[in-house]
Amino acid sequence: MIRKQRKIRKLRGSRTIARGCSKKNRGAGNRGGKGMAGGHKHHWTWMVINDPKHFGKYGFKRPQQSIFKYSPVNLDYLDEKSGELVKKGLATEENGKVVIDVTELGYNKVLGKGKLNRSLVIKSPKFSETATRKIEEAGGEAVTL
Question: What predicted TM-score, i.e. pTM, was given to this entire model?
Fold first, then answer.
């Protein structure tokens, strides 16, 4: 048997407990900072050995839900450009009403800004409440795709 008791039991009565000057074993400054201080600096070797996965991201991250992007168009724009759209072939004229499919123009929602001077049949995946009201007041039709 090498040692019957731990060394600290023998040193308990002394003032310094075999650490030299009594100030040398006092406070967090002697340990190199409180808690995890110096993890990137003077305690780096300790971190590498004892807690190698401390830094960095680990685990599964939940995928973000895809947010649907609207690309809206206003009624005043459609009213203004309806004649040009018929000439270009992007809209058709049926029974005295211009039929515009908004998805062919690259939009997917119709908003109700402006006034309608003529009756339009507008086809779109989504309409605002004011847009449908203004289209029907002008004698047109809002067709949801």
Answer: 0.54
